[in-house]
């Protein structure tokens, strides 16, 4: 016994010495990370665990933390983190326009590399958002078919107008009854209905619900698909920031709950595919061309074949449809929400918007596709909101070979991930000038009031290069339709901003609050967006 104790003392001593030596060797990095003198370590790194704890601790203010990193460390820096299923990660953060351009121009060298990521796979499947290489190319080519001018002119604008009219009807009732509305919830319902129709020809009926009141609020009942979709999305994000999610979910029951959400989504998509297959079989029996049914995205994809000549499986079709709804629905609704949040703080911009809407569209009556193209100031507001509240606030790509980033001359090793952030770049004075933090839609217009085309790589809110967002024009069109239509009919008063549930970090001083955004795949508003609405007397 005594001899064992004697042996233990030096072993323990040695372990403690190793621990302290390791802390000295890796004072701000994950253990065994390589030292580099060419890039600074971002603030927040700790001995042996690098930024692992920093990222978890700053979750509710993650974008402010990223901006601070940029202010303190400059255009390029490193974060090292430990993830139990991916091991130690040595990440590069670059906020340099040339670096970002190099990455975005070549989607074959710089890949997403996320298909193997278990945290996101359950929600995204293998759809366009997470695919790479030839699989992505085929998905992109097929999907591009629906984004043509004819569809925009003949179909999308009318669809958005109809949806917006339904929203206006809700707002009128809320206004007459003096109830508070969560505008973000209403936008999300409209865009879910439009994008489900566009993606698979199926209406979810989310905006068609009958209202009820609760504590002075105007509410609509939840729709099963919407509930599952929203919860699965935010759950996926939680997985993304918890490196131990597979373990914790074993104990906290979350896995079962998530499986339930995914099942609701899968069943919904499977029913739609089944109905479509039946319709197609019927059409071909009756000798009608399948092309006659070609109205939504699913119809295009169902005509495609796999390389071996087999038809696309229900799972493949499910992934395609869900990726489209993910891509289009939340992004557009959330950007509209940020628009109204910003407008509430800038009545002078609101007044200009209304003046343009009255001038171009008239005081009442319906508007057409060509009218909306003339709403240049409205378009500028939409762009400016996206500059400060980009819906995909940060992104990353994995290098498939050793590379050098041209702007900052940073060496990137094969297999290393580089992050950039539209949120940070949108606030960079180097990119946008000294008034970068100001909300100023005029920066998007020339002296004659025409829209300026910005360099895509300086403003990568829609991505840029070969993988630029396919729905960029569609989202802008929908945004312009909603903004101009609503602004002609209502005054909006922002309320309940003092509610701590709306902030990641709450403070009695409004200037010191942070994280107004929620933890989601894209940049939504935490705790919703409450307004009192007053109908205009025209
Ligand atoms: C304000 C609204 C929107 C914003 C800010 C936005 C932004 C983006 C961004 C940043 C990406 C790149 C994501 C990444 O690779 O990490 C992207 C991709 C994509 N977006 Fe959008 N998007 C919006 C609306 C839409 C709409 C309405 C659709 C159409 C339904 C759409 C369809 C797509 C598709 C299909 C991709 C994948 C493109 C590819 O990988 O080749 N987006 N979008």
Automatic annotation (TrEMBL):
Instruction: Tell me which domain of life the UniProt entry assigns to the organism this sequence originates from.
Output: Eukaryota
Q: Which residues cross the membrane?
A: 6-26
Gene Ontology BP term (one): lipid metabolic process
SUPFAM superfamilies named in the record: Cytochrome P450
Q: Which cofactor does it need?
A: heme
Keyword Calcium appears in the UniProt entry:
no
Q: Name one GO molecular function term.
A: heme binding
Positions bound to heme:
469
UniProt keyword list = Heme, Iron, Membrane, Metal-binding, Monooxygenase, Oxidoreductase, Transmembrane, Transmembrane helix
Question: Has UniProt tagged this entry with the keyword Heme?
Answer: yes
Under the heading PANTHER family, the entry gives: CYTOCHROME P450
As for family, the record states:
Belongs to the cytochrome P450 family.
The name on file for this protein is Cytochrome P450
UniProt organism field: Gonapodya prolifera (strain JEL478)
Q: What is the lineage of its organism?
A: Eukaryota, Fungi, Fungi incertae sedis, Chytridiomycota, Chytridiomycota incertae sedis
